[in-house]
Amino acid sequence: MNWRSPFVVLAVVVIGAVSFGGYLVLSAYAPALRQGKEAAPHALSRSAIGYRALGDLLEGVGIDVVRLRSKPDPSAPSVSVLTPYAGSLRALEIDGRRKTLIILPKWSAGAHPTKQGWAGLLFPSRLEEVSFIIAGEDIALSVTQRGIGDEAEEGDEEEAEPATEVVLNRQDFGVGTLDVGAIEWFQTLSGDPIEPLWTDDQGEVVLARLIVPESDAQVYVLSDPDLVNTQGLSSLERAVAGVELFQSFAGEQAVVFDLTLNGFVRPRNIITLVTQPPLLGVTLASLLMTLLLGLLAFQRFGPPARDMRGFAAGNEALVTATANLLLTNNKAATLGQMYADQLREDLRTNNHSPASGRQENFTAFEDMALEAATSKDLDETLGAARKLFERKRIIENE
């Protein structure tokens, strides 16, 4: 392969440009390309502590579900569901302009050793207090966890006591008593001011509306995620409670899972700006123009020229230079006469004369010399010169 070939150079440039452009675009869109397969409490996770199954279940019963990677539009007719991590609760701000349900975190999960996206060992987060900023007001709640024995080491299933049987008393978002079975480290709320909507059989608050002073914000908190996450929905009673909760909570509106708290944010930068409408057309036109200009430059200039001598060498070059000099000085009309004189001088120098040869050859030579001297253009001069040269050779060979 000739590495200096222009096609090789063009291929290298094109491959480099495409690779660099692809790297920039993929880097800009990397957060949006995350599929959320890890074991974490968000609406994309199919793990035991995720909420992908909840969204699929709600879609199955006719509720519109949106998994959003940007902040929801406050004016849109929908309700928000927030599933924050334990570490993001302290900075959680809610404007209160839309109906919002916050599902508190409870578990920290290790990765499954063999299956991607599955939860390995589960460890309770041991929340004690959570706080929110709602419509500019600080709201603090206490969290209580009970169930498996406090003396058992985390993850030690052999020493763990049976989980607590939970019976829900529902005053709203589903009415009546419902036995949801055994739940490990069952989590409840307490604090002031809250309006209890679900309580357990011990009177502890499970679902509550937060009362914000001088505000009509509709913000609700569900204390235990095992009522609606994937492992919770494995129980028919909890699946029924979850469906009734969201049917009453959302009504005819869509349920929007806000994924921005979980790090799934659609990026906003200069690259995403120019690769999306309305600037996408300008970007494509600019790339096409650049490609056409590159092809034009490649065809126009080609490979670099080699260094040439200042003056050509050889007899042919000498004759060409002499002819060009005569043409430049308007001496073309005298070329025939000068050439005839030169050939005549050569004959005399070599002792060729009418006395030593045939008279008719010298007569023909002189006629041709006259023709060359009286020619009107360069083509006639060249033709007469060839004839004159052939006659000279005939005389020399006598």
How does the SSE layout of this entry go?
Layout: H1 6-33, H2 52-60, E1 65-68, E2 78-82, E3 93-94, E4 100-103, E5 107-111, E6 119-124, E7 129-134, E8 137-146, E9 164-170, E10 176-183, E11 186-190, E12 194-199, E13 205-210, E14 219-222, H3 236-250, E15 254-258, H4 270-274, H5 280-301, H6 315-328, H7 335-349, H8 359-373, H9 378-396
Parallel strand pairs: 1-15, 2-4, 2-15, 3-7, 4-14
Antiparallel strand pairs: 5-6, 7-8, 8-11, 9-10, 9-12, 12-13, 13-14
Question: What do these coordinates show?
Answer:
- The chain is α/β, with parallel strands linked by helices and 398 residues long.
- It has helices at 6-33, 52-60, 236-250, 270-274, 280-301, 315-328, 335-349, 359-373, 378-396; strands spanning 65-68, 78-82, 93-94, 100-103, 107-111, 119-124, 129-134, 137-146, 164-170, 176-183, 186-190, 194-199, 205-210, 219-222, 254-258.
- The strands form three sheets. The protein has a nine-stranded mixed beta sheet. Strands 3-7-8-11 form a four-stranded mixed beta sheet, with no helix packed on it. A two-stranded antiparallel sheet has the order 5-6.
- Helix 7 (335-349) packs antiparallel against helix 8 (359-373), helix 7 packs parallel to helix 9 (378-396) and helix 8 runs antiparallel to helix 9.
- It is rod-shaped.
- Mean pLDDT is 79; it is low at 148-162.
